[in-house]
UniProtKB/TrEMBL annotation:
<keyword id="KW-1003">Cell membrane</keyword>
<feature type="domain" description="SSD">
    <location>
        <begin position="638"/>
        <end position="767"/>
    </location>
</feature>
<dbReference type="InterPro" id="IPR050545">
    <property type="entry name" value="Mycobact_MmpL"/>
</dbReference>
<dbReference type="GO" id="GO:0005886">
    <property type="term" value="C:plasma membrane"/>
</dbReference>
<keyword id="KW-0472">Membrane</keyword>
<feature type="transmembrane region" description="Helical">
    <location>
        <begin position="227"/>
        <end position="246"/>
    </location>
</feature>
<dbReference type="InterPro" id="IPR004869">
    <property type="entry name" value="MMPL_dom"/>
</dbReference>
<dbReference type="InterPro" id="IPR000731">
    <property type="entry name" value="SSD"/>
</dbReference>
<feature type="transmembrane region" description="Helical">
    <location>
        <begin position="413"/>
        <end position="431"/>
    </location>
</feature>
<feature type="transmembrane region" description="Helical">
    <location>
        <begin position="653"/>
        <end position="680"/>
    </location>
</feature>
<feature type="transmembrane region" description="Helical">
    <location>
        <begin position="281"/>
        <end position="303"/>
    </location>
</feature>
<feature type="transmembrane region" description="Helical">
    <location>
        <begin position="717"/>
        <end position="734"/>
    </location>
</feature>
<keyword id="KW-1133">Transmembrane helix</keyword>
<feature type="transmembrane region" description="Helical">
    <location>
        <begin position="253"/>
        <end position="275"/>
    </location>
</feature>
<keyword id="KW-0812">Transmembrane</keyword>
<feature type="transmembrane region" description="Helical">
    <location>
        <begin position="615"/>
        <end position="633"/>
    </location>
</feature>
<feature type="transmembrane region" description="Helical">
    <location>
        <begin position="353"/>
        <end position="377"/>
    </location>
</feature>
């Protein structure tokens, strides 16, 4: 339908049902909202973090198999530091008291500490399994220096139990497997541990508690915090912008009601579909209100423009709905596509974000287009709009200067835009990935601060596992153990390896204890019967068998070596994993199959897959968004022109990551896709307005049409971009480091998008005769097609 006919209220239009039947729509929406509000109370979190796991990767399947063989090695670590350390009998006594008390706690399966460890030793001429911590006259004390050195060499796990300077002690607490994902059980256990420690330690003792259950609880807590804070800040931002634009408290209040209804629908949908609240889905609480506000802003400003021509309020609202329905739908669709392509990923939490955002954005479009006319028709404050109240203020001075710059220097603007884009893209090759799990959390969080305390005073806590698989009884053979010795030696030479933990040091300790005087490096392997005999000896006692089965299975065809890594900020985790894997396979080739596993290896593999998936999704999003813009513009050429001002936002993401060292990870990887989906909205509104101006005034010069389209849309463009930029800045409050960086990338991307929509696209039309001619031909073709309809 021709534009003038579409705005002619004497002609029927199916979109008028939105206004004519508004009462029915409002009642239906309020009923559904009430149901969603009740359903939202059942929204769940994800204490197991399973929504962040990809169960289809080979790395995950390997880790599952590893767990079935060797069981769980997930411990809580209580680190206690005293300035006098082992020299203080009261401090040593407290370690004994704490260890015994922790063993009695509910949910505790095992406590590993110096008072609890027993090791085969020779004391007073007798061989027996003695405790590491000795008591003399009832006072605990460490073994003498030589014995302690030998024990530490035999049991590398003691690195977690005693620091080199003897000032920090550690106690490992293993929780019952079935309760480690139970928030109430974890909280109860942590409270119990803290209470025991506080009551037992002498004055001047510091302590920290770290472990995977604590990190998981922290991530769940911070996910909820991020959702609440981000949603609240975005609502505050939307309120401030609404007050500034609308100059009406009542209009702002109604706008906020619409935004809150949209949030309730999102919460209800998440609860109904059992989508948990996690570190990614929490972002929906901010982005949904922001995308909804865009439609409300356009609706109110467009209503005022039409109300200046017709004093009929309902007529002006109908014209606004007719005018905005299609472009706002396309804008919502492009944003939904930007988020929706995240569902290509294999990680549930990323798919969940893509789904809830794409569905939520289209839902918010329906709610905003329905509720805005219904609520605003009832408001007397909109009966007689003031020309200066909504449309004009001091900002016009800035906008008029910007307009003058565009028409006076459009060639320079095009050149600056092109050069800046090239410069930003030049930074892309310098992008590095960072897929370490603990770097998800900000350095300022308590969980990371506690881990840093332990690593500074006790030992590195990050580890990877090397799994060796061979034929049955292979790990009873001395030549195989000689290869394992070579492997451990090679592993310790790697820069990122802090230490290794395996059965070999303990076998060597037993050999030196039982066969003294054999100092040769490989003396253990010269007697073919010695290794099998030592393994049998170990299996005879409960303590020995526990150490044995920690590293070798019953059939002696699977063996593990635990490798503690330094986790240096400058070394990618993938590089460390590749070095371990290459070393293990090269040494054990022909003897055993080697593979690297562990929680960090699983997370690394799935994040690498996620990055590849999201690079693919970005390409798909660009194609789909371009097709939608072609559909809206009615021309492939003009659709491609729509894409041009949105290349700088994409370049900004890659440029900032490359030039400023922002790492590519599981969150920042989809910054470009999301930014394009959001930034393209303003381009669509401007070019749609430009097309309409040319069609309604065919005899007007294209320069004047560009100017009129700019004046008609620039305030909405600036307002919408400002809300988005501030919304992305609000992500800086998140304790998740990748989310903060995602906010920074999104913010700068939208700043460049604002440049593209406020300066570059107009300058491109004025500078390029090809673009101008394409627009003219398209409009002429559409006018020719509409002539029979008018006749």
């Amino acid at each position: 339908m021709p534009i003038k006919d579409k705005l002619d209220l004497s002609n029927k239009n199916i979109l008028d049902v939105v206004v004519d039947k508004r009462r029915y729509f409002v009642v239906i929406i309020l009923v559904i909202t009430a149901w969603f509000a009740f359903t939202a109370l059942q929204l769940e979190t994800d204490p197991s973090l399973k929504s962040g796991m990809d169960f289809t990767t080979d790395a995950y399947k390997l880790h599952q198999r590893y767990g079935q063989i060797f069981g769980s090695e997930e411990f809580l670590l209580v680190a206690l530091k005293h300035e006098r350390g082992a020299k203080d009998p009261a401090f040593l006594s407290s370690i004994v008291k704490i260890s015994r008390a922790l063993s009695e706690l509910r949910y505790v399966v095992e406590v590993v500490s110096l008072p609890e460890i027993h090791i085969f030793q020779k004391r007073n001429g007798k061989y027996w399994t003695y405790p590491v911590l000795m008591f003399r006259d009832g006072v605990p004390q460490l073994p003498d220096d030589l014995d302690l050195k030998n024990i530490r060499k035999a049991l590398p796990v003691t690195d977690f139990l005693l620091s080199n300077d003897l000032k920090t002690f550690g106690i490992l607490v293993r929780m019952q497997e079935e309760y480690k994902f139970d928030p109430a059980a974890v909280t109860s256990l942590l409270e119990g541990i803290e209470g025991i420690v506080r009551n037992a330690i002498p004055a001047g003792t510091e302590f920290r508690i770290i472990g995977a259950p604590i990190v998981r609880q922290g991530i769940v807590h911070y996910s909820i915090q991020t959702g609440i804070y981000f949603g609240t800040l975005c609502l505050i931002i939307a309120t401030i912008v609404s007050v500034y634009i609308f100059k009406s408290a009542r209009v702002t209040a109604v706008t906020n009601v619409i935004l809150l209804i949209c949030v309730v629908w999102v919460l209800g949908l998440m609860a109904a579909l059992r989508i948990p609240l996690n570190s990614t889905t929490a972002l929906a609480f901010g982005f949904i209100p922001i995308t909804t506000l865009e439609i409300v802003i356009h609706m109110v400003i467009r209503y005022h423009l039409f109300h200046e021509a017709t004093r009929d309020k309902i007529g002006a609202i109908k014209q606004a709905v007719r005018w905005l329905a299609r472009p706002c739908f396309i804008c919502s669709a492009t944003t939904a596509v930007g988020f929706g392509t995240l569902m290509i990923g294999s990680i549930p939490m990323v798919r969940q974000l893509g789904f809830i955002m794409s569905v939520g954005i289209m839902t918010s479009y329906f709610l905003a287009m329905t509720l805005t006319p219904a609520f605003f028709i009832r408001m007397k404050s909109l009966d007689a709009p003031s020309d200066s109240a909504v449309v004009r203020d001091w900002l016009n001075v800035f906008l008029l200067k910007a307009e003058g710059i565009i028409f006076g220097h459009y060639k320079t603007i095009v050149a600056i835009g092109a050069l800046l884009t090239l410069f930003l893209f030049a930074g892309a090759p310098m992008i590095r990935s960072d897929i370490q799990l603990l770097r998800m959390l900000s350095e300022s969080t308590k969980e990371i601060q506690d881990i840093k305390f332990v690593e500074a005073n006790l030992t590195p806590v990050n580890s990877l596992e090397i799994l060796l698989e061979a034929e049955p009884n292979a790990f009873k053979k001395p030549d195989v153990w000689k290869k394992i010795q070579e492997l451990e030696t090679r592993l310790k030479e790697l820069p990122e390896v802090a230490s290794t933990d395996s059965l070999l040091p303990f076998l060597d300790y037993l050999y030196q204890l039982l066969v003294p005087g054999r100092a040769e490096h490989d003396a253990l392997f010269k007697n073919p019967k010695m290794v099998p005999q030592l393994l049998t000896l170990l299996s005879l006692s409960q303590e020995g068998n526990r150490v044995l089965r920690r590293f070798v299975n019953d059939d002696y065809d699977h063996l593990r070596i635990s490798v503690r890594i330094k986790n240096s900020p400058t070394v990618p985790l993938t590089q460390t994993i590749e070095e371990l894997d290459h070393t293990a396979k090269s040494v054990m080739k022909g003897t055993a199959r080697a593979s690297v596993t562990g929680d960090l290896a699983v997370f690394s593999a799935q994040t690498s897959h996620l990055i590849r998936d999201q690079i693919l999704s970005m390409g798909i999003a660009c194609v789909l968004i371009t097709l939608l813009m072609m559909l809206q513009m009615g021309s492939p050429t003009l659709g491609l022109v729509c894409l041009i001002p949105n290349i700088p936002p994409m370049a900004a993401v890659f440029g900032l990551m490359g030039w400023f060292g922002i790492s590519l990870d599981g969150v920042t990887v989809f910054a470009a896709t999301v930014a394009i989906g959001l930034a393209v909205d303003n381009t669509i509104h401007y070019l749609t307005q430009l097309k309409r101006n040319i069609k309604m005034n065919p005899n007007q010069s294209i320069e004047e049409s560009v100017r009129q389209a700019y004046r008609s849309t620039v305030r909405q463009i600036l307002s919408w971009a400002s809300v988005l930029i501030m919304g992305f800045l609000a992500l800086s409050i998140s304790p998740f480091r990748p989310v903060v960086l995602f906010g920074v990338l999104g913010c700068f991307s939208l700043i460049f998008g604002l440049f593209g929509d406020m300066f570059f696209i107009q300058s491109l039309v004025l500078w390029s005769s090809t673009v101008r001619n394409s627009i003219k031909k398209l409009v002429a073709k559409e006018i020719a097609q509409e002539q029979p309809d008018r006749a």
